[in-house]
Amino acid sequence: MDWVPTWGQAVSDYRGEGDEPDFDDVTVRMTLPASFGGSHARAQLSNRFADGPVRIGRAAIGVGDRIVPATFSGRSSVEIPAGMAMWTDPVELPVRHGDDVIVDVYLPEPTPYATAAGFRYDRSLPGEHTGAVPFPLEGSAPEAIDDSREFPAPNTTDEPEVELDGTGWSLPAGGPFLRTIEVAGAEPRAVLVAFGGSSTAMGWPQYAADLLPADARIAIVNRGISGNRVRLDAPPQTPSWGLAGLTRFDDDVLGTYGATHLVIAYNSNDWGLPGRVTSIDEMPTLEQLIAGYQELIDRAEEAGMTVILATITPLAPELRVDANREALRQGLNEWIRTSGHECADFDAAIRSASDPIRLQPEYAAPDDTHPNINGSKRLAQTMIEALDRLHV
């Protein structure tokens, strides 16, 4: 079969962060939006950052009124070694652009919360409940369990949205193990990989896919990681911010099957974290930032990919008063706009008309740094316009 990624996110290391309890005799349900349709589906589960193997007791994949068991080389259960990933066997499952694809995974043994990505997921009450409807959510009444094994229609879920708290930016606890969903049975015009930080990880790529018509035949894969940097790995205290973009490029971009277009859409973490979260000695020069971008571009173009660069949106309030940091943002944006590559001008799209070093209030999250839902949708529209200019 010729496989096409219909959904994906980059996984990172959640060991030791304490965001989520471990798993033991529970089923996790992950519901993800499909950007591209096909007649068959399969899911990739990653155990990249664990210290030991992970036992998958049972799995299922579903769309609409059909959820079917998923196997691994014909077996209902599998052990994924540490540092490895594994695909389910293909299942015959019609998937359309915009469908919600359900992936259920039962974890029968004590399993550390280690390898995860930035999307919502649900835990069940104790037990194996792959395909159960209604899904017996953790904390719900036991009588809500449907253990009929007939894999009936799943509950529908609202469109995922970025979560914000009163103090600023807050991403949901990462969904465990699931890295990619692929479909087969149709040929895409393009496979776009979105590569960046938090605004990419939980924002515009999904909305861009939503804006595309069903016959666009463009798959969009999100490989953003909150807190991620181009040049340097995550600091030890927050490993979930991921390996540097330059380090993870081969896995997350070149490892995305059929990728034709790369969008480099980073935040200001490279020069926003030094002196606040990490040592000030990690502060880059503009030349070093440009060199990092250029290396990503060169590697993508060597692989035959078309590159789109996104400008960096305004800094956090505590950062924009620092003339050096703001100069880095402005300098990198000027280079992006004049580099000769297609530019999705995210900065111009959501900055304030009266005070261009700030976000337009209607597009700003409470932290006045990240885009809110309206801002993410505006960035998505900006990306669609860039694709139109490229005649994708």
TrEMBL record:
Domain SGNH hydrolase-type esterase: 195-377
Leader peptide range in chain numbering: none
Region called Disordered, residue ranges: 146-168
PANTHER family: GDSL-LIKE LIPASE/ACYLHYDROLASE, PUTATIVE (AFU_ORTHOLOGUE AFUA_2G00820)-RELATED, GDSL-LIKE LIPASE_ACYLHYDROLASE, PUTATIVE (AFU_ORTHOLOGUE AFUA_2G00820)-RELATED
Protein name: GDSL family lipase
